[in-house]
């Protein structure tokens, strides 16, 4: 096993995941609006989506599967509309609260609502299928970390899961601290607007790409 290559991979994944994006914005907003349990389920959903995309990327790398760029753009476009819908809902909810309203603990969620956190996380994670292209271009740089292709894919995937969940759970923990709760409404608004801007950017990019095909 190439330890130095493995450490470079772990650092690269850490920097990639910790950088704010649609998943981080969703986790932050969910943690503040619905509590840590719902946020953890959402994080598990986004992680589940990453695993699906990793498996698809592995099939592409082995030549077992080929994916149309046009199909990826269409899926991405639909996914961005879904993210925009979620962000508008979250923004509307955040703006509805009066600034002077005392902070209350999130109400317990029914089982169905909790399960929807897992589904929402998966849909947001899978809504950017261009991550497949990222994995296809990213994994080959580290595929020689072990002597076996399957072993390398398995190891890289497990490390991705551990780093991904660790960072997302850290965000959830930070959002439940007193300082974050003090500025709960402002953080919710910022994370919702960030999510909306990312979605609009994705809609513009995917839409223009499809129109130019």
TrEMBL record:
Residues that span the membrane, as ranges: 6-28, 40-61, 67-88, 118-139, 151-175, 187-207
Domain of life: Bacteria
A molecular function (GO) term: amino acid transmembrane transporter activity
Ligase in keyword set: no
Localisation per UniProt entry: Cell membrane
GO-annotated cellular components: plasma membrane
Pfam family, one: LysE
Alphabetical keyword list: Cell membrane, Membrane, Transmembrane, Transmembrane helix
Keyword presence, Transmembrane helix: yes
Membrane topology label: Multi-pass membrane protein
PANTHER family (alphabetical): ARGININE EXPORTER PROTEIN ARGO (PTHR30086), ARGININE EXPORTER PROTEIN ARGO-RELATED (PTHR30086:SF20)
Protein name (Swiss-Prot/TrEMBL): Efflux protein, LysE family
Organism for this UniProt entry: Pseudomonas syringae pv. theae
